[in-house]
Amino acid sequence: MEIRGKVGVITGGSSGIGRATAQLLAKEGAKIVVADLDEAGGAETVERIESAGGHAVFVKADVTRIEDARRMLDTAVSKFGRLDILHNNAGIGVGAPGFPEAPPERWRLVIDIDLQAVVLGTGLAAPLMQKHGGGVIINTASMAGLYPHRQDVVYGAAKGGVVNFTHSLAFWEAERKIRVNCVCPGIVDTPMVRKGIEAATKLGFLAKPFVPAKMIQPEEIADAVVSLVRDDSLFGCALEIRPTGRQIVDPRRAPGSRK
After folding, report:
1. Does residue 196 belong to any structural domain of this protein?
2. Among 34, 150, 218, 243, whose Cα sits 20 to 30 Å from the Cα of 187?
3. In 10 A of CB 254, how many CB atoms?
4. How many independent structural domains does the chain possess?
């Protein structure tokens, strides 16, 4: 997809991967809707984009609520005339203490934000994208969705769901002209991750091998997201991102299937 002139919605856009992606897409010529519960952070993201000559608006939204998700997507149409790109990026972890000591309400919130909101946003965005010939949806998953993740098993389960959801929508490229892919980063240096590591370390829950010597920067993930938006040949794929590089993870073929 040619990014210039397109319109994108970024959830979790007030910091970290979401902010970096919003800024990079705006730099490439897209108009951006920044969606988040953090109003101050969202306003800062918008200010950074606009000070660099881009166009952006902020929408306060709880991505787990149908009304909020619909409103953030409708804002793209009402403010900028269309919707071409959706980055389902908002996410949280259970944190310390982990499963099963953490309250069940916390487990459910992780599933709601990390998986259910991705399903919701994707479903609501599709008809809006089809009005203008299709679009691109990028979901933020994780390496925790590709491999066992003992540090946060509920987070891993949610991200595994995002990966399979993405793989399962490969057929949308042919039927709806919507390409759905996901990024699967290792540990990224974001405010949420830093706070989680600090809290877990204080409580003695953090296994030392979990923290790498060098964390991936949000800008590296943003660059990967933009590469998936641009590359019309990729759909239903997961892009694994390690400190040492990237690799595409294609959907596994179901037993007995021809395609």
Report:
1. yes
2. 34
3. 8
4. 1
